[in-house]
Every structure is written in C-alpha cells, then in structure tokens.
Amino acid sequence: MSEHDTTSVRVQELLGEELSRLKFVQLSGQESLDNAITNARVQKPGLAFAGYYDYIRPGRVQIIGESETRFLETLSAETRLARFEAISAIEVPVFIITKGLEPFPEFLKLCTERRRPVLSSPALSSIVIKKVSNFLEEHLVPSTHIHGVLLDVYGLGVLLIGPSGVGKSECALDLITRGHSLVADDRVTARCYPNGDLMGSSEGPLIHHMELRGLGIVNIQDLFGLAAVRERKSIDLVIELEPWDENRAYDRLGLDETVHHILDVPVPYIKMPVALGRNLSILVEVAARNHVLKLQGHHSAREFAQRLEERLAGEKSKPAAALGAATTEREGAES
Predict the structure, then answer these.
(1) Residues catalogued as catalytic
(2) Which of 176, 259, 331, 334 is deepest in the core (most CB within 10 A)?
(3) What end-to-end distance do the CA atoms of the chain give, in Å?
C-alpha cells in the first residue's frame, strides 16, 4: 500500500478531461501552468477590486464574474490599474473569467508579466465555482492506493486485501453474482476527507472491470448490469484473506477486535483464513451482517460470553445453596 498526501494541484490539471465541460480557454500564462493550487476553496475577488486585499489567500483560484467586471467598469482607469497592480502582485495561481467576458487588456498584461495564468469559460460563475471546487476537493486530500477489492455488501463498504492469488477477485465475483456491487478491483484509491470520511474508488481504465485469472479482463457492468457496480463507497470494514496455517491459533469467539489503519483512519479489521471447502463469499456476507449488528449495538460474541459467565456463576452457586440447606436440615434434626 502506497500513501501520499496530495498538497497541490497544478493549473495544467484544470485543463484536463475532468473539467472539459467548462471549455476553458487560456488567455495568458502558457509558461505558468505549473503554478500550484494549494486550497480547495475558490474565491471571488470582489472586495480586493474594491481595495481590501487582506482576505485574498495565496494558493486559491480566483473567479472573476459579471458582478466583478461591472464594478471594475465603474472605476476610473487609474484606480482600476492600481487594483490590478495590487491583486496581481499576490501569489494567485490562476484567475478564471466566467460567462466568456472580455478581460481588461491592462489586467492581462500584468498577469502575463507576473506569471499569473488567466483562463476563460463560457459557463456561469456558479457552475464554474461548483465544478472547480468539487475537482479540487477530490484532488487536494490525502490519498493512497491499496492492492485489493472494494465492494458494497449490504450497504457496507468491504475491502478485501491479501496476497496475490489468495482468491480476492474470485470471492468478489461470487459476491457480485449474489447481488452485491463492485467498487474497485486490484487497485483501490482511498481518500480521506476533512470530515473524516474514508472513501474508496477506482480510477483509470479499470473502472467497472475485474481481472480474473484464466478469463482475463471482464466488464462487470456489461455482464451484470448497472446495479452491479458503484463509482465510490466508504471503507467500513477490512477483511484480509490469508492461506490457512495449521500451526496458527485462530480466534474462535470473536471477542478480540482489531483495526486496520488507512491514512491514519482506524477501520474494523478481520483476518479470514482461506482453506479448501470454505465458502468465502458467504463468510464475507456474514461478516458484513455481523458488523452491521455491532453498529446497531448488538455484539453476538460478547452477548454469548456474558450469558456463559452468568450460567457458570449460577452453577457455582448451586452447590453452596445445597450445602446450606443440608446444614439447616441437620441442625433441625439434632434439636
């Protein structure tokens, strides 16, 4: 498992396929497309154009819409140029002009000189803000790539991990035929969001596909329908499949609970031995159902252990009670 903290997005990435619907056109700064965007929140610099610059944060995308443009038109040429001078001096990674508005020539000139790229989009400001914000939020969070299979089992995100060839994909395929959904196979991308949510997804050409030894690459959506796949899912339970070891003592009660850390987030963890004749898909289903019960406050192993302790305690008290009764009876006879 490889981990990395995504701390920046290059301006060049805004021009990629993910934001192609915004139809960005580059107006200046061809040599500055490697500028780093370090904050997922975008800003509209209306207050800066009014002369207040303190709230402009370096590393944020700045959106210039119709309201900002109309306000700038009311300023004198000298005042407008002074505002352009001040804001272009801040380390802004990129300016985006919306609604296809014409930029002020003096603004473009300053941005070119100071390596501030300017993009234009015909879309409304609200649409640009929403899509760019979502894009940055998705990319400016800690992420990691995990070798495993992520599935939606009874609404629970179950991550199967283990060594190559242990049967992760085959188990996942059996679960899919039983009505559960595939999220990612072989390479799971996990992201941790500011609210603590740990989400898993698939990226690139492997989306909705599985690799099965002997069959090759198969398209799960084409084979089983749209309900058999999901774009992303929270990671709620990690199950590690490992070859059965006869010399190892496995937990038989389920009282011990362990966690598996992904991006420093603790996730409930089960180690499940794989042996000939074990139906892994049913075991995974039972593990998922049992975890849902735990989330609802029902811990089967603990409840069983508690009942067993109460029964043993009751059996121990019986001889003492019987001895007390016999003593009382003997004392009565002697009197």
Answers:
(1) 147, 168, 186, 252
(2) 176
(3) 81
Identify the pLDDT of residue 104: 95
Query: What global pTM score does this model have?
Result: 0.70
Task: Check residue 230 and report its DSSP letter.
Answer: -
**Residue 48 CB coordination number (10 Å):** 21
* Final residue of a structural domain among 123, 139, 155: 139
- DSSP code at position 196: S
Whole-number average pLDDT of the chain? 87
* Paired tokens of 226: 């749209």
How do residues 179-238 score in pLDDT, each as one tens digit? 999 999 999 999 998 788 999 999 888 899 998 888 889 999 999 999 999 999 999 999
Q: Contact at 8 Å (CB) between 271 and 162?
A: no
What are the tokens at 194? Answer: 């500011």
Q: Number of structural domains, the chain?
A: 3
At what angle are helices 77-88 and 105-113 packed, to 10 degrees? 30
What would the two tokens of residue 5 be?
């903290």
Token readout for 71 is 């306000």
**CA-CA distance, 83 to 89, in Å (whole number)?**
10
C-alpha–C-alpha distance, residues 128 and 44, integer Å: 11
Neighbour tally for 82: CB within 10 Å: 13
Q: Which helix (H) or strand (E) holds 13?
A: none
Note down the domain range covering 83. Answer: 2-139
Residues 280 and 315 reside in one and the same domain: no
Q: What distance in Å separates the CA atoms of residue 228 and residue 87, rounded to the nearest whole number?
A: 50
Residue 191 and residue 224 in one domain: yes
CATH number at residue 83: 3.40.1390.20
Encoded tokens for 233: 């899912």
User: Looking at the structure, do residues 184 and 311 belong to the same domain, yes or no?
Assistant: no
In angstroms, rounded to a whole number, what is the distance separating the alpha carbons of residues 49 and 86?
A: 9
